[in-house]
Amino acid sequence: MGEYSVGIATRSKIYDVAKRLFYEQGVKATSYAQISREAEVNKGLIPYYFKTKPKLAMQVDREFLGGIDDAIWGHWGEDGLTDPEFHMIYELLMFRLLGRDPQVLRFYSDVMGDPDCHDACLALQRETMGQIAMGSGIAVSDAALQTIVAMVNGTESELVHALQSAQLHESVEDFVRRDVLCCYFLLGADTAAVEEVFDRSLDLCEGLTLACGPDFSVSVVAS
């Protein structure tokens, strides 16, 4: 095996071990020493391949969120949903997953609460909000979008924290409805029309949730 192939295999081994540990015990409780010990590699190779633990965690987070995308499109088909329906179902199923899987909730909370992940989380949120605006035919300036992203990111972070500390007493469907209406209101959408789409999205994912494995593989399953 060539040096390049060995490097790829080592990087993949570190990543796979880190994913499992992040799922089992969270990002905060996982150390370089533990990753290197379980991956059977020199501790110095982790920053060599991934720079920092937050960057490694963000890579896992991106894979996890992308897996939700793939699971939803795989279940309904590429042409089975409008863009607004997709994003509303995404929010509903993701929060259903967070509410039923404490390991995923801990991981997601660790990432969102890490100051070193903040800018990357904002970039992901900006990407999502831009897609929502474009898919809904809403024109929004870059300056306005930046403000909206900061507001929405703060709201999601607080929702995740409240869910983790059992401070939310509404159903997932009710607080996600409020979250969705807030997002679209900030973008300047017709909230009555948004309510109609949300009700349709709620019907489409009735009886469904997401399942996540210890490798952060995601699938749509019956709840």
TrEMBL record:
Superkingdom classification of source: Bacteria
DNA-binding region: 31-50
A Pfam family the protein falls into: TetR_N
Entry keyword annotation includes Metal-binding: no
UniProt keyword list: DNA-binding
Limits of the HTH tetR-type domain: 8-68
SUPFAM superfamilies: Homeodomain-like (SSF46689)
Name this protein carries in UniProt: TetR/AcrR family transcriptional regulator
